Every structure is written in C-alpha cells, then in structure tokens.
Amino acid sequence: GAKMSFFVDSCIMFTTQAFFFGFGWLFFMRQLFKDYEIHHRVVQLTFAVTFALSCTMFELIIFEIVGFLNSSSRYFHWKLDLYAMLFSLIFLLPFYIAYFIVSNLRFVQSLQRRRLIVWLTVGVWLTFMYFFWKLGDPFPILSPKHGIFSIEQGISRVGVIGVTLMALLSGFGAVNCPYTYMEYFLRHVTDTDIQSHERRLLQNMEIILTKKKRIALAKRQTRQAGPGPQRSGIWGMLKNVTTSSPGGENIKQLQQDVEALEELNRQLFLEVVDLHEQRERIAYSKTLKGKYFNIMGYFFSLYCMWKIFISTVNIVFDRVGKTDPITRGIEIVVVYFGFQFDVKFWSQHISFLLVGILIVTSIRGLLITMTKFFYAIASSKSSNIIVLLFAEIMGMYFISSVLLMRMNMPEEYRLIITEVLGDLQFNFYHRWFDVIFLVSALSSIGFLYLAHKQAPEKHMMQGMYSR
What we know:
The protein is mostly helical. The chain contains 15 helices and no strands. It has helices at about 1-30, 40-65, 70-105, 105-110, 115-135, 150-180, 190-225, 235-240, 250-285, 290-315, 325-335, 345-375, 385-405, 410-420, 425-465. The radius of gyration is 30 Å and the shape is globular.
C-alpha cells in the first residue's frame, strides 16, 4: 500500500513538474527571446528546469497546507527538489555562466583552444565557489554542527544572496509602484512641447546632412586635386597636419562637428520618445483604469511608508514577529469580537489563500521584472549569459521566498519548512531583509527624487534653448 501510494504521489509530482517545465520553456520562447536567436538548447533547458524546480517548491508548500499527498512522499520530493535546486544553483549554472563568459573573451577567441576554455572555466567556477563558501563566515546563519555536504550549508548561503536580492527588489518596487501609478508625479506635457522638440530634431538632422555633404565635397575636391608636389621640411609637415581641401574646408573639424551633432540627435530623439510616453501616461491616467491605479498608488505609498517605518522599528529594537499575521488576525477577531469558530480550519484556508497570492504575485513580479531587464541590457552576444544569470537569480529568489514565507504561516506548517530547509537561523534572515529593504527603499526614493527633479529642469532649459 505504502509503495503504491508513493508511486502515485510521485506520478502526480512529476506530471506537475512537466507542466511547469513546459510553461518555463514557453515563457522563454515567447517572452524573453522573441527577438533573439538563441541556439543553445542547453541554456533554454537549464532555464526551464530551474523554473520548474522553483515552482515545485511552491506547489509543495500549498500541498503541505492542504494536506494533499502522503507526508512521507512529500518529504522525499522536498529533499529531491532542494538537492536538484542546489546542484543547479551552485554547480551547473555558475559553471555554464563561467563557460559563456570565458568563451566570449577576445583573447580566448583568438586562441581557439577548447582545452584552455575548459581550464579557464574551471578556474572561474572555483573562484565563485571560494567566495560562495566564504559568504557563510560573516553571517550567523548556521549552527556549527552541520557537515560540509549537508543541505543547510548550501541553502543558508543561497538564502543570504536570495534574501538580499528580494529585499532590493521589494524596496525598489515599494517606492517605484506609487511613483509610476500616481497622477501627482506626472509631468505636464503639451502638444506644443512635442512639436517644438520634433522641430528641433528635424533641424538638427538637416544641419548634419549639410555638414556631411560638405565633407563629401571636400574629400572629392582633395582627390581631384591629386597629390601636389611633395614639400619637404616643416612646411610639408604643417600642410599635412591641417588637412584642408583645396576649397578651404577643414575636414577634421567638420567630422568632429558631425559627431557632436549626432550625439545631440540621439538625445533629442530619446527626449521626443520620453515626451510621447509622458503624454500617453497622462491620457491613460484620465481613463477609468488609470484612475483606479491612481487610487491604488496612494494605498501603495501608505503601505510603503508603513513598511519603511516597521523595518526601522524592527532594526532599532531588534525584534522579529513571533506570530504570523493569520493567527494574529484570527486571535483579534475571536478576542475582540467574541466570535466562535474553528480556528484551525479557518487558519488553514486563509493561509492557503494568502500563501497562494504571495506565490503568484512573486512569480509574476519576478518574471515581469526579468523581461524588462532583459530587453534593457541584452545583446546577441550576452543573451546566453544573461538568461543563465536570470535562472540563477530566480532559483535563489524562490528559495528565499520559501525561507521568508515561513513567517507568514501558522506554527504547524512552519515545522515542515524547518524540517526540510534544515536548522537555519530564520530570524537572522528576517532582520537582514529589513536592513536591505530599508537601504533599498531609501536609496530608491533618493534616486527617483533626483530623476524627477532633473526632468522638469531639463525641459525648462530646453524651452529656453529652443526659443
């Protein structure tokens, strides 16, 4: 009976994993790489596998709460999943990233030796391992009794990196969200602004064209005049230095002018695009959806202030929440309103809902952020490296989500995570999250404030300049 149920459970798990794998593969093809030719199947495979493993962890958490599958088979799949995940994050992905970085280096490409590439890759990977291992020293993440190859050694270190990333992203998100949604921060852009910018862009292009024509003409005249009698001595040298054509044009000077103008052209073009975007946002903010997001923006900004305040309090008073929000909420309802109900039943259902929402939003948020980043920084050469880096970040991020999610779950579900992830110093991670979140949120506020202040000034300056 036990063997049979284990077999059935495993079939269910592997089927869902195949489904997640398919989703990761499709996301990769449709979203990340619709504009890029990625021929490395390995890259695609690793990305999809990491995605599937990450989703399986969340699926197992949900199964824990709902009590689906046998507890022994759940435990087995937890371990299997985590070992696979750690192998991928510590060995496989870093090794591949190192390999692609090394094979993209100029001097390696000129040598064309496979052996050298492999040795260099191993060298880079060993360096990564050294730093990864050393990462454990400054942080109080482990109790000393764990062996070198225990699962805790890996998870604790991955957790530090992952929690740092999560806190950086949430800090930036908490500040950026209200900033992008709220009408208050929109710059006022009129049609005349856009027209004057476009006019300047056209004028600039015309100037570039005339200068280029002058260069072409001058070069042609030089060629037609042909090499005159060679002058020796200082006069000849001076003449050669100031290459001007017979028509008296200084070609070098013209070329410098054209370069400067082309740079200006690029900036003008970007500004025109920026103005169009601003105008679209203004139009969008007048729609119903825009108004809804504007109201949400106010809620978000309150939430952001609250989070910053709480993080500060947590750091200053060195405190970590003991009870999870669900049990706490139910206690308040029972004590203050005198309602009587089955606490265990409701806490299970509410945890299921809350954790579900947390999981969906964190996966969605990460994928959206990744896609944006990818479009911003990828080129055909670096796209392999970037995708592998994403897979690495994704794995670490999701392991840390599980680490931190433990705080949002009632006691009986916490036990399983503790059992699976091992005996870690969970409180340290929460404190660390608060510190990094605070730093990230405050620096994001500073950064956005400067960017926002500069934008109107820039437009004012241009307004004066274009008159």
